[in-house]
């Protein structure tokens, strides 16, 4: 078995696929209990080195596992690479068989049945393939005839066609003439035969003929079935390797019959099929609505339509394996990889303890490497049949639905979804197909199959309710298929289907009610069961005496009660203290205010220092005290402006300092207003809003906190029918004020969260636990859970299905599977500290940001004033310097004139004339 991957697959997909190959090998190895070593041959296509590395890791992990140690198994792998050359592949296989391998994993894509027979015909070695084999389709091998005039390839059956012998040096294989089992039937194929599905759909759509386009020899098996069916005529068939070849054939059909309806069946690779469709849509001369394409290769992911908007322009139908949606959303698997994943479940099967002695001599001694291929069988007949029988008897529900094989190793008892592309370029399910019931449209009931039959599709009514049932992806909310939903109930019904083998179809209840009786009868899911519009009601449905009178319930799968849900008091409301006065602002906000104060002090000091320097620009020696006093005075002025003293001893002398001071106090006033506005509600809370109600008695004796529940449901019925005094008081209050009753649980939770502690919602305790564990983690349950309730599935009275469901529920309860489901869907999100409240963060980012901008504007104005002042001072100093220089020059000239005339300037007073 090989791994076939899309070209755009990620490395993670390659890794996962390789591990699945390893699991296939493991379950083959487990069938040889008691062997010392198991030799496995693996043939991989060239370029799959990453797959080989992951395969080696998987084998190493298995050999080191407890299972391998317990069974005494050591897997030894012999690897070889190949291409589509049959001769080279045969040589590689021959080397592996000579090495003593007991099974071979081989991708069969590219090889016909005749080629595979030539490889394995005389070896007695079972194989696992991923393509439909000849034995699974038409029993007669086809004979090729080439019609050159029509440029088509047609096939006619022949019972005398000779298959090529196993290649050798001319000798014949030493097989005994009494071999009863055909060696070509050893092994299994994982690919279901979908040719009958295409034929059934052609009948449903009214097509009498089809056009067949294929790209490999394996598709000839499908073509032969079309020709042998007698229900549909093959108009043309052609093998292509490029989309242009298929488009040329379709263009010639269009020219001959432009109005006729045409069914085109594409049995080719995904990329080639995409190109054929794209070419058709982009050709303006080709019709669209009269063409219907069918993709034989199953789809496994919605990603097949990504980037191909042309699909929405044509009628395109495809088949989808059931149960593949979850695993293919994360990985871009194609159908071959998904087929390989099926083998994972076989590991859970117990290996057969008998017949182990058949392999002991084989795997311990190996095989003589000198024997030429084809002279003798590499396994005895008994050895080959032991492995083959084990493979064909394995039955499990895998990633492609039910996996089971007939005596020839072909898939049986499988069901596929029939998908079509809608106008929004989305896959939608139109029905299902199985060999026993044929095509069944979605939402339709196959009346030809009675209830209780294995192919009967049970109608399951349900309701959207977290976490019981939720829409998996809003994009597919209108799809209406089983894969649309997820949740506890979805997992529950899937597990029941797996254990009982029943098939089901989910649909949402029409009126969004669980079920209560009124003048017009029962509504909701109970009403649909009563009116026979559904077979099963699946939800968190409470078992009550009134409901038990009209429907049958299964054993409970969950136990619940009634809880009173209220909004949590905030951590800021537990008394008045230091924390209360710090509560209006978050830590981020307090840090921002402190940073603003530091920035203002820094700028005030800078401005004051600059002014002081201008006033005392020229210090003489001995003036250090004057400089120190100036610095001290600047610091004092800065503190005075942000925190004024009563004496007013220091005041800013600079205009820039006074500007900053003015803007600072504007900032302080606005911040203080915001602070007091936020603090006031915390100091004046009413007792009713955050009361210390802890019991139902306290709740029923007060009238400030309102309480309510669902208008219809088990909780409402409990209070209405209860004879307990406290419960009667609660019901009378709710009946008097009908507005406290809500239509849905989500509406009730919304009222609790928006009421600030003034509304209590009575609901099931399981739902309350789920809400308490969801963000923003602001709800809690007051008092104790009371009135134990049980959830069960509702079925039609007297239905034999009830016993099957009971058995499945008991098995899951005893095995702990239901507890695992509950732990999965009720996991709390409130274990980690909650994030910052949006209101606080909004306050910090919006209000305080604008207030901080006010400070920034003030500092900018102050800087501008200081710059202007500096420029003026610089300008005045330049003028004074020029004036002083002119005065000095004049004085010097007068002094020189006095020396020449003998006139001396008079001496200053007190200066001796000596």
UniProtKB/TrEMBL annotation:
Organism: Ixodes scapularis (Black-legged tick)
Coiled coil (residue ranges): none
Domain of life: Eukaryota
Feature: compositional bias, Low complexity: 154-166
Localization annotation: Membrane; Postsynaptic cell membrane
Protein name per Swiss-Prot or TrEMBL: Excitatory amino acid transporter, putative
Alphabetically ordered keywords of this record: Glycoprotein, Ion channel, Ion transport, Ligand-gated ion channel, Membrane, Postsynaptic cell membrane, Receptor, Synapse, Transmembrane, Transmembrane helix, Transport
Pfam families for this protein: ANF_receptor, Lig_chan, Lig_chan-Glu_bd
């Amino acid at each position: 078995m090989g791994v076939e991957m899309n070209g755009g697959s990620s490395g993670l997909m390659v890794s996962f696929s390789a591990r699945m190959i390893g699991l296939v090998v493991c379950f083959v190895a487990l069938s040889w209990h008691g062997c010392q070593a198991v030799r496995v041959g693996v043939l991989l296509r060239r370029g799959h080195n990453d797959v080989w590395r992951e395969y080696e890791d998987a084998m190493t992990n298995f050999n080191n596992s407890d299972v391998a140690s317990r069974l005494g198994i050591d897997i030894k792998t012999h690897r070889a690479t190949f291409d589509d050359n049959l001769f080279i592949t045969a040589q590689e296989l021959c080397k592996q068989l000579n090495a003593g391998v007991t099974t071979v994993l081989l991708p069969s894509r590219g090889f016909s049945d005749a080629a595979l027979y030539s490889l394995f015909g005389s070896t007695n070695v079972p194989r696992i393939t991923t393509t439909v084999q000849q034995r699974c389709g038409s029993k007669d091998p086809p004979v090729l005839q080439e019609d050159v005039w029509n440029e088509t390839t047609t096939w006619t059956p022949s019972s005398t066609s000779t298959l090529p012998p196993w290649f050798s040096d001319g000798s014949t294989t030493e097989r005994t003439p009494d071999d009863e089992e055909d060696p070509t039937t050893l092994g299994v194929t994982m690919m279901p035969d979908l040719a009958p599905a295409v034929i059934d759909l052609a009948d449903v759509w009214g097509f009498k003929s089809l056009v067949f386009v294929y790209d490999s020899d394996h598709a000839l098996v499908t073509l032969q079935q079309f020709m042998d069916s007698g229900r549909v005529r093959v108009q043309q068939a052609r093998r292509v390797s490029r989309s242009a070849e298929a488009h040329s054939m379709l263009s010639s059909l269009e020219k001959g019959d432009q109005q006729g309806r045409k069914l085109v069946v594409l049995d080719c690779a995904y990329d080639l099929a995409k190109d054929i469709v794209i070419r058709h849509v982009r050709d303006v001369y080709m019709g669209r609505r009269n063409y219907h394409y069918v993709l034989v290769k199953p789809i496994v992911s919605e990603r097949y339509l990504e980037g191909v908007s042309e699909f929405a322009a044509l009628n395109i139908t495809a088949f989808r394996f059931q149960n593949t949606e979850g695993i293919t959303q994360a990985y871009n698997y194609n159908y071959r990889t998904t087929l390989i994943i099926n083998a994972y479940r076989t590991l859970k099967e117990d290996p057969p303890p008998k017949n182990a002695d058949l392999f002991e001599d084989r795997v311990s001694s190996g095989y003589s490497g000198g024997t030429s291929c084809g002279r003798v069988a590499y396994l005895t007949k008994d050895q080959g049949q032991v492995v083959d029988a084990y493979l064909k008897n394995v039955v499990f529900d895998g990633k492609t639905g039910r996996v089971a094989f007939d005596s020839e190793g072909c898939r049986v008892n499988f069901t596929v979804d029939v998908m079509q592309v809608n106008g929004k370029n989305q896959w939608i399910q139109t029905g299902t197909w199985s060999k026993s019931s044929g095509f069944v449209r979605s939402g339709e009931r196959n009346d030809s199959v009675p209830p209780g039959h294995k192919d009967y599709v049970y109608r399951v009514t349900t309701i959207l309710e977290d976490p019981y049932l939720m829409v998996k992806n809003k994009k597919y909310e209108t799809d209406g298929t089983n894969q649309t939903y997820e949740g506890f109930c979805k997992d529950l019904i899937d597990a029941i289907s797996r254990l009982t083998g029943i098939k089901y179809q989910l649909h949402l209840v029409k009126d969004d009610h669980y079920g209560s009786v009124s003048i017009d009868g029962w509504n909701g899911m109970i009403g649909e069961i009563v009116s026979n519009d559904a077979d099963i009601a699946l939800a968190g449905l409470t078992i009550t005496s009134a409901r038990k009178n009209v429907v049958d319930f299964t054993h409970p799968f969950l136990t619940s009660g009634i809880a009173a849900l209220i909004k949590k008091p905030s951590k800021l409301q537990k008394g008045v203290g230091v924390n209360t006065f710090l509560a209006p602002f978050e830590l981020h906000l307090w840090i921002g205010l402190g940073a603003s104060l530091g920035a203002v002090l820094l700028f005030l000091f800078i401005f004051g220092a600059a002014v002081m320097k201008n006033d005392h620009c020229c210090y003489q020696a001995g003036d250090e005290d004057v400089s120190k006093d100036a610095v001290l005075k600047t610091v004092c002025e800065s503190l005075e402006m942000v925190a004024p003293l009563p004496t007013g001893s220091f005041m800013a002398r600079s205009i820039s300092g006074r500007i900053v001071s003015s803007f600072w106090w504007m900032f302080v006033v606005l911040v203080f207003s915001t602070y007091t506005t936020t603090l006031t509600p915390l100091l004046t809370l009413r007792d009713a809003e955050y009361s210390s109600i802890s019991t139902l008695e306290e709740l029923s004796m007060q009238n400030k906190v309102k309480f309510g529940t669902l208008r219809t449901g088990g909780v409402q019925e409990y209070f209405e029918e209860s004879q307990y005094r406290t419960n009667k008081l609660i019901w009378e209050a709710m009946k008097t004020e009908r507005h406290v009753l809500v239509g849905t649980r989500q509406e009730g939770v919304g009222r609790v969260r928006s009421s600030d502690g003034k509304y209590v919602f009575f609901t099931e305790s399981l739902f309350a636990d789920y809400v308490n564990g969801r963000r923003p983690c602001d709800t809690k349950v007051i008092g104790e859970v009371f009135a134990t309730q049980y959830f069960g599935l509702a079925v039609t009275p007297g239905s034999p299905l009830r016993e099957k469901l009971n058995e499945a529920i008991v098995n899951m309860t005893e095995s702990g599977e239901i507890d695992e489901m509950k732990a999965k869907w009720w996991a709390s999100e409130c274990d980690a500290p909650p994030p910052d409240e949006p209101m606080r963060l909004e306050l910090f980012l919006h209000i305080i940001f604008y207030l901080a901008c006010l400070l920034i504007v003030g500092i900018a104005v102050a800087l501008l004033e200081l710059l202007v002042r500096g420029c003026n001072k610089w300008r005045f100093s330049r003028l004074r310097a020029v004036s002083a220089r002119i005065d000095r020059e004049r004085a010097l000239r007068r002094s020189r004139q006095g020396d020449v005339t003998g006139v001396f300037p008079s001496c200053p007073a007190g200066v001796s004339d000596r």
